[in-house]
């Protein structure tokens, strides 16, 4: 089964999706509370760099992940202070974080490691894949051995965490008191305030959760996928995650499906690069790399009119007197 390209595409899709799922779930919490989180890209970069740098220094991936969480949460709180407390322009705040982290991570990496703005190879400090019990015994069984060993098993713990987020986030948003308050703050903050809900505190909590989730996206990029940090290695993952969220109409299940869709096209991109295809022949690599971004434009153009965002999204809350 491993010889078929379809098998590689399926496995690659599963491994590509967590970067987008973590970021999209982070954006979901922020935007459901009424705060536009355009700074996902910057938080991914910051956590990717800090996670890789600290993991290399201590030769421990878990210390690196913890440091990445701290870095992402600090940025999330800065963004929350500007957007919620100071009632600043949320789009500008997010873009400022993205631009700042794109340059700052490169400069700091160059200062500490002197390797052209990247960190050294992590080696033993990378997270290893989990081999499920019975994988070897099932390996020779057609399809079942491949499915159990490479689709269900053979992934990092962060991959499993990403897919476990779906039921957890769904329950938290739709079946918990916090989720009810969160959605109320995003739809009608004045009504939530009149009911005794602290809009400010709820939005800060949502931004903190978004910071934690976004840090896993960065850690996955550097500690699991690449094994090092490279300048702008997120390559627009934050924006793709936002697109998946719009595609999913700010709902967890549909958002995850959007992330899988982008992960699938990323896997297809890798498979067809350098391959002579029937009729069209060999497609240039630069054209192949455009596929996820062209798809983003198509999705946004086709779905923006149908998507219904939280009514108070992007609007600073001013408490009624």
Describe this structure in words.
With 321 residues, the chain is an all-alpha fold. It contains 14 helices and 2 strands; from the N terminus they run H-H-H-H-H-H-H-H-H-H-H-H-E-E-H-H. A two-stranded antiparallel sheet has the order 1-2. Helix 7 (157-174) crosses helix 8 and helix 11 packs parallel to helix 14.
Helix content: 55-70%
How would you describe the shape?
globular
CATH architecture: Orthogonal Bundle
The total of beta strands comes to 2
Mean pLDDT: 88
Question: How do the strands of the widest beta sheet line up side by side?
Answer: 1-2
Question: Can you count the helices?
Answer: 14
Order of helices and strands: HHHHHHHHHHHHEEHH
What class, by secondary structure content? mainly alpha
Total count of domains: 1
Highest-level CATH class: Mainly Alpha
Cα Rg: 20 Å
- CATH fold-level topology: ABC transporter involved in vitamin B12 uptake, BtuC
The biggest beta sheet is recorded as: 2 strands, antiparallel
End-to-end Cα distance, whole Å, is 67 Å
Low-confidence regions: none
Beta-strand fraction estimate: under 5%
| Quaternary structure of the protein | single chain
Give the gist of this structure:
With 321 residues, the protein is an all-alpha fold. It has 14 helices and 2 strands.
Give the topology, please:
Layout: H1 5-32, H2 40-58, H3 61-85, H4 90-113, H5 135-138, H6 144-152, H7 157-174, H8 177-187, H9 189-194, H10 199-226, H11 237-247, H12 252-272, E1 276-277, E2 281-282, H13 285-289, H14 291-303
Antiparallel strand pairs: 1-2
Helix pairs in contact: 1-7, 1-10, 1-11, 1-12, 2-3, 2-4, 2-10, 2-11, 3-4, 3-10, 7-8, 8-10, 11-12, 11-14
Subcellular location: Cell membrane
Protein name: Nucleoside ABC transporter membrane protein
Keywords: Cell membrane, Membrane, Transmembrane, Transmembrane helix
